Amino acid sequence: xxxxxxxxxxxxxxxxxxxxxxxxxxxxxxxxxxxxxxxxxxxxxxxxxxxxxxxxxxxxxxxxxxxxxxxxxxxxxxxxxxxxxxxxxxxxxxxxxxxxxxxxxxxxxxxxxxxxxxxxxxxxxxxxxxxxxxxxxxxxxxxxxxxxxxxxxxxxxxxxxxxxxxxxxxxxxxxxxxxxxxxxxxxxxxxxxxxxxxxxxxxxxxxxxxxxxxxxxxxxxxxxxxxxxxxxxxxxxxxxxxxxxxxxxxx
Amino acid sequence: xxxxxxxxxxxxxxxxxxxxxxxxxxxxxxxxxxxxxxxxxxxxxxxxxxxxxxxxxxxxxxxxxxxxxxxxxxxxxxxxxxxxxxxxxxxxxxxxxxxxxxxxxxxxxxxxxxxxxxxxxxxxxxxxxxxxxxxxxxxxxxxxxxxxxxxxxxxxxxxxxxxxxxxxxxxxxxxxxxxxxxxxxxxxxxxxxxxxxxxxxxxxxxxxxxxxxxxxxxxxxxxxxxxxxxxxxxxxxxxxxxxxxxxxxxxxxxxxxxxxxxxxxxxxxxxxxxxxxxxxxxxxxxxxxxxxxxxxxxxxxxxxxxxxxxxxxxxxxxxxxxxxxxxxxxxxxxxxxxxxxxxxxxxxxxxxxxxxxxxxxxxxxxxxxxxxxxxxxxxxxxxxxxxxxxxxxxxxxxxxxxxxxxxxxxxxxxxxxxxxxxxxxxxxxxxxxxxxxxxxxxxxxxx
Lengths: 251, 447
Fold this sequence. Notes:
The complex is a heterodimer of chains A (about 250) and B (about 450). Chain A has helices spanning about 45-50, 75-80, 100-110, 120-135, 140, 150-165, 180-195, 210-215, 235-250, and strands at about 5-15, 15-30, 30-35, 55-65, 70, 85, 95, 145, 170-175, 200-205, 220-225, 225-230. By secondary structure, chain A is an alpha/beta fold. Chain B has one domain. Chain B has a ten-stranded mixed beta sheet, with helices on one face. Chain B has a nine-stranded mixed beta sheet with strand order 3-6-8-10-12-14-16-18-20.
């Protein structure tokens, strides 16, 4: 297996406060990596920096994705290159229908990659198929993006977008938070459906439950801006027993 | 003598010198209407910053220049060169420089009468009596009970000088299939003014959609135009009214619509205002009959150094009436915008439901907007709300769209459009497609 994403000694500040203090992490093609860690450790910051959100200062370090310098790429180019962030708090966009939004995004990415755009019929066919997999009703195509969606609907809509855009690097930022057990299962199945030997996944979560469904290959503990421990799924079980404090102290 | 009172006198003089150009003066009531109006204008002059309705941009460009109201134009236009009538359009009235030059329609169903003001003045003046109202009937009645005619000075000027207009008369129980378009084209001499006075009268239980489409002038002369429309919606009738106002950087347009609503009647209006010069749209609605309702939606868009203004006054005069106002303002570059909206609930108008929501989106550091929502409630049992916000593009939304692969420019456009969509998506069926096409034409022009 080859390395798809290579984060090297990444230091990141927000308004002069250092949040990430030297994160190094390699993820291979086909690998599903989980990042766990206490509140305020910098998990969401790492996700945002990968997607290209503004407002963060990268003071040193590098991120290479498929051999390219990710930090040099504008947000939308990263997406076209296969980066997808499932938001912890999906953003409401009144006045834009969900289907119009996803179609605009999909076609913008295809255009960027020099592929032909999908017409309305082709798009609808694909969208119906994906919505069915996630047990979503089709009315939501016409609903405004995330407006009036319940917590579960919002997260499901994120996975729907992900499956429509079929990324090669999927970052799931606390996608399991606020989901009931049944919805969690559907969402996890949706993510598992996308797994391939190409896709690398980063799952940020606080809970063991999502990991039971996703069966990540590696688990990394991020604490105070650094990866303090890396292991396999037994680490998550240990974590449930000892808590972060126990593991951080031992590390 | 100050410059502005000098200019005021020139209008008075011009009125006395050019009576032969003003239609209908042989009718005593029209003569009185026009005489009273010029007298009132001469007394009030152009409203200055002391007039509440005008205090944001008091008659910018109007009070210091004389615009000749009676200058004849030699411009002509080949009707065939005008874009074809929309397929949903039943009747199209084409104005050039304030006068009707053509009325096109296929076979008309009975009960739908559309003609020019001059035609009606010659052939059926009785119909117009009381429908073209004198300017002082539109005076503002202040809370202090003072009757203030100054805000309606431009309407007075229009009443004195109007040369033509469209008269739309829909008979009882008639539902007009398709919409009626009033298309205003212009190509005027420098420093001239054109006044148009129209009447829309819907008889009981009739239904009609009207588009007032004001195009920017073809040439780049400084021109002032004023359109005043008197609207009466009778019992159980319903009018959808869309105004589309554009203008070039030298155009100054003021548009007034006065609406009287009888029992169980409906008025649904959308104003799309996008002038590169100055445009002001006033909408005054009087809910006179029980269970009447009014919807006023306004979208204003400004670029460069343009000025877009809107004023609404909704008066709930009787029990159980309903009104809604949605205003969206999008300003870029150095443009200016203002919105003043008032809901007045009269004594005894219990059971009133009135809402107003105004949102402004500023796309540049140099754009400015003034928003003033007002409620005057003199009844006890009412439900009223108003809200006004001003902001810029939301960075979180922009990031969200871009993170899905939508390039920044496209994402900005999507967000700007979505801000205005609440107005565009609420346009009545026959007019929706036409309005969307007009918007599209316009945004392509701006690119």
